[in-house]
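step: validate -> pass
step: tokenize input -> pass
step: predict -> running
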Amino acid sequence: MTDGVVGRAGSRAGGRSRPGRAGGGGVSTARQFLQAGLIDELHLAVSPVLLGSGENLFAGLDLPALGYQRTEHGSSPHATPIIFTKRAP
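step: predict -> pass
step: emit ->
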């Protein structure tokens, strides 16, 4: 699975390195990168808006077991920024 995700990301980048970029692909690609431990830091902005159904980013993922911890969070009327960081091995 990891080789496929990394290969697709590299293909989308035209073979160039794109540090800090998952190469697109949405929730499914982000989940695969999280599971493979390829994301060092994840920045999310959670907005209190109900949009209906869709893919759940964290369903079935145990972020602490994968080495991630919440390192920052904030609050505003429009969005809640949250940062998850992968712990050093």
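step: describe -> The domain at 2-86 is CATH 3.40.430.10 (Dihydrofolate Reductase, subunit A).
step: cleanup -> pass
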